Amino acid sequence: MALTPTTILTGFLGAGKTTLLNRILREDHGLRIAVIENEFGQENIDNEILVQDTGEQIVEMNNGCVCCTVRGDLIEALTTLARKRDAGELHFDRVVIETTGLANPGPVAQTFFVDEEVNAHYMLDAVVTVVDARHAMQQLDEHEEAQRQVGFADTMLLSKTDLVNPEELDALETRLKRINPRAPIGRSDFGVVPIAEVLDIKGFNLNDKLELDPDFLAAEEHAHEHHHDHDHEHGEHCNHPSHQHAQHDHHHSHHTDDIAAFVFKSERAFDPERLDNFLGSLVQVFGPKMLRYKGVLLMHGTDRKVVFQGVHQMMGSDLGPKWGETEARGSKMVFIGKNLPKDVFIRGLEQCLV
């Protein structure tokens, strides 16, 4: 049986996840979606609880969606839904999991790789993060969870953009892209967002697409060229190597996030064995601090692309399509993590080139 695509919906308290979910649960989109509200045992903080307490854990909506409030184990909720569907008691073809506003999406994503029964029924499609444009700057400053939710995202949806001016929005987008240059940024004001921007994004697909924000790439190149001129400007107030690529910010931003991204690019091919060993050791040492990473690689000895990606310590790779006749060959990798020593990664990867 085909695996059910599953979306993890995350975002800080009050960002507008429930507003978005309510639309999904009530709108006439013709999809049968099972929504799991994963509350981890705390009180539900949102005012508008999706399903008023009817004593029944699973409620069917009139548009064919199913809502399931879970205070306990996510694995149990997913397997219960799958069993009920197999028995013909429920019908759904997609799942959306809403995490609590304080949750780190990492463990939720990992559930899809570690639990065999979940693995047999579901396929993780993407992590969608709703970002409150009005409060995000402060939340990112004060809460690492907010940074993690951004770092984990395959796509970001900005809510409450009507409450900020264009300059503030611009500064926020720049900051979000520095934390996560691989997630496109859309809008979700009042929960209004095309369903195609939430579902079937294929963010966890091992495909050979690695779209990165072009401004971020340009800033990375720039930082690389001027690396030595800039070092003295950082001195005491910045001890994270991962921030040294943020110089394009004209020094007016005082927001240094522990979670940030960097890119490795090379036109030379990798030695498969050396790269394999090095990536293995990186994941062992830095896995807990590595949120998401992905690469499309040029490997010595094969005319096909190699695609790899991971979440924390879990890494997978796959042979992609052949390199095109006219295509520029080379490797491109992005790492998003917490205080990762960029120079250790870059130098080590360079040692793995043929």
Automatic annotation (TrEMBL):
Lineage, top-rank taxon, reads Bacteria
Key word Chaperone present: yes
Q: What Pfam families does the record point to?
A: cobW (PF02492), CobW_C (PF07683)
Task: Quote the cellular component terms of the Gene Ontology held in the record.
Answer: cytoplasm
Q: Reaction catalysed by this chain?
A: GTP + H2O = GDP + phosphate + H(+)
Q: What is this protein called?
A: GTP-binding protein
Enumerate the spans annotated as CobW C-terminal domain. Answer: 259-353
- Print the keywords alphabetically: Chaperone, Hydrolase, Nucleotide-binding
Taxonomic source organism: Zemynaea arenosa
The UniProt regions of compositional bias labelled Basic residues, in chain numbering, are: 240-253
Q: Biased composition, Basic and acidic residues: where in the chain?
A: 222-239
